[in-house]
Amino acid sequence: MRIVVAEDLMLTREGIVRLLEDSGFEVVAQVQDLDGLMTAVDRSRPDAVVTDIRMPPSHTDEGLIAAQRIREGHPNIGVLVLSQYVEPRYAIQLIQGHPEGLGYLLKERIFDVAILVDALRRLTEGETVIDPTIVARMLGRRRRDDPTSRLSDREREVLSLVAEGLSNSAIAHRLFITERTVEAHTTQIFAKLDLSVAPDSHRRVLAVLAFLRR
After folding, report:
1. pTM of the full structure
2. pLDDT in tens, 32-71
3. Whether the Cβ atoms of residue 103 and residue 130 lie closer than 8 Å to each other
4. CB 3.0–4.6 Å: which of 37, 57, 93, 118 could bond 6 by disulfide?
5. Within a 10 A sphere around the Cβ of 200, how many other Cβ atoms?
């Protein structure tokens, strides 16, 4: 898998590159700002991009801007946006509309090589990746009338994994249950939360996140 890495801090960038190369990925370019990232993507046409959310010139949301531009110009390239802070609104902004091939993880998490490799594999297969800490923050918000209180502990567990972008088969593997059981849980969850049962995983993720951010 061919990767472009965008990170303005040299030591962090080199650390990410080292992790990727040690895991068998080919880093075809490493850049430090938005313009450099877009140039590298146009030239090398990588399988995926790993980018910090904040880079020059403004150090605000360049990673989100890059993801949007890459989605428009190169929809087959997966984009993993990294953030140092828990920002649910950025995660939602990233994936709204077309979540396939897009991911948002906390920067600290990618130094677990297994998580980084799994995220990139899923993104290049067109899946969605949302950091579980983001999902937990959204799911744990106190509301005056919280519809998630209708869910069993197992249903809340399944809901959080759906929001992270996992497929039914991946959820079954994670929870050591059958895929048919996962399907039954998701049907109950969507009914209790008055959500339509989306026909594909991407619309399912969008529906769940739309519910959680209300």
Report:
1. 0.88
2. 999 999 999 999 999 999 999 999 999 999 999 999 999 9
3. yes
4. 37
5. 8
